[in-house]
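ARCHIVE CARD
CATEGORY: sequence design from structure
SOURCE FIELD: tokenized fold
FIELD CONTENT:
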């Protein structure tokens, strides 16, 4: 391992998992005849106390439901998730960290902010981004979001991104593919060009941290999209690059409310990731103590269920059908008078750019007159979550938007 503190912030150097704290001492006493360490309550047979009504509604053991989880997360779950990452990203040829479990992706991103940024540091992101980044990075950690233009006419604006990073002495970049809100993923040619840009900057001895927000990983609907995470392409690119993968069962396994996410690291500079895993666990301990043990065990059980892959594939196929229907409907030439789509090819969402109609006024009008709900964004954009719209309603959805624009333009 070369200089384990190379990438982390000054604050992160002080964030350490307590080696002799309560949890460490409790671990040493775990198998003892009398264990008076952890703040849990057990009956005389060593089974956690529980309320009968809660237990009856879940088909897991009391230990799997009611006991505290590790600050690092369920080891079986962590190992399985790493196995999934390597299986889904075969271009990874170097060692990556063992994922640490977080309480959803928001929590993982918050931990990344603590580990790699100090107040007033700049984080480069596309100008079409998930609004929660502001709360996580700017409000929560004092990090400044520095945006580049997301799109050219038909793809990702790599020229804008390159100009942005060329001006920096060190680079912190957050990329989200498939993107929320636009539903865009990089094509193969864009991936290769972006890697070339980043490697060129790393060769100038710039420290580069790239956070890959993979919330919607796997939801790809076109053949020219790179099926692997951009994280996979970064793992062995240059020793000055640290890749941080933030993902979870939230969208990949349609388990939004269970709040199970992961944070994983890779860098050509590092051979041992234990110190980073320890720091993540310390952040978990500091903020929420541990992730829901029940949620983690439900996910572990799901992975071993015989129909897991088939069940998941059926739902992915349904999402793809809705995407294809949107692609078909949006071609109607009459729409161009009032709106046009931004590039989209994956994920849950797509965006339309309104022409001479205010997005918030349209949103309110659609609610009141057409019984239709959409999201109004800055830059006069409307975000449409086709993930939650039945295929049979998609044509009606866009027709309602068109009629709403027509009403407001009169």
């Amino acid at each position: 391992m070369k200089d384990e503190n190379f990438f982390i912030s000054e604050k992160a150097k002080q964030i350490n998992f307590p080696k002799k704290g309560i949890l460490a001492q409790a671990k040493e006493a775990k198998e003892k005849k009398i264990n008076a360490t952890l703040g849990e309550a057990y009956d005389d047979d060593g089974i956690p106390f529980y309320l009968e009504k809660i237990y009856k509604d879940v088909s897991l053991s009391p230990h799997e439901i009611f006991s505290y989880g590790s600050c690092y997360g369920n080891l079986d779950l962590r190992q399985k998730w790493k196995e999934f990452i390597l299986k889904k990203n075969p271009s990874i040829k170097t060692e990556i960290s063992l994922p640490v479990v977080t309480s959803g992706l928001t929590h993982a991103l918050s931990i990344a902010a603590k580990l790699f940024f100090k107040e007033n540091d700049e984080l480069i992101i596309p100008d079409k981004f998930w609004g929660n980044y502001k709360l996580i990075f700017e409000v929560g950690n004092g990090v400044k979001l520095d945006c580049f233009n997301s799109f050219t006419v038909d793809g990702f604006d790599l020229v804008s991104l390159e100009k942005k990073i060329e001006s920096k002495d060190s680079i912190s970049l957050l990329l989200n593919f498939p993107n929320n809100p636009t539903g865009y993923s990089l094509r193969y040619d864009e991936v290769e060009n972006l890697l070339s840009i980043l490697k060129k900057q790393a060769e100038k001895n710039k420290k580069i941290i790239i956070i890959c927000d993979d919330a919607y990983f796997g939801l790809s609907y076109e053949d020219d999209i790179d099926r692997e995470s951009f994280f996979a392409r970064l793992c062995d690119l240059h020793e000055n690059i640290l890749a941080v993968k933030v993902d979870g069962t939230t969208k990949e396994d349609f388990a939004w409310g269970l709040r199970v996410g992961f944070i994983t690291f890779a860098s050509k500079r590092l051979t041992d990731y234990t110190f980073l895993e320890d720091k993540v666990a310390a952040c978990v301990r500091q903020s929420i103590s541990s992730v829901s043990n029940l949620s983690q065990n439900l996910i572990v059980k799901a992975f071993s269920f015989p129909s897991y892959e088939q069940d998941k594939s059926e739902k992915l196929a349904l999402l793809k059908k809705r995407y294809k229907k949107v692609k078909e409907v949006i071609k109607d030439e009459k729409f161009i008078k009032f709106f046009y789509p931004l590039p989209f090819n994956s994920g849950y969402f797509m965006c339309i750019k309104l022409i001479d109609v205010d997005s918030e006024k349209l949103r309110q009008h659609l609610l009141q007159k057409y019984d239709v709900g959409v999201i109004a964004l800055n830059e006069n954009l409307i975000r449409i979550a086709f993930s939650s719209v039945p295929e049979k309603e998609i044509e009606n959805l866009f027709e309602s938007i068109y009629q709403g624009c027509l009403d407001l333009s009169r």
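CARD ANNOTATION: The chain has a mean pLDDT of 91. Residues 18-68 form one domain.
SHELF: design records, drawer C
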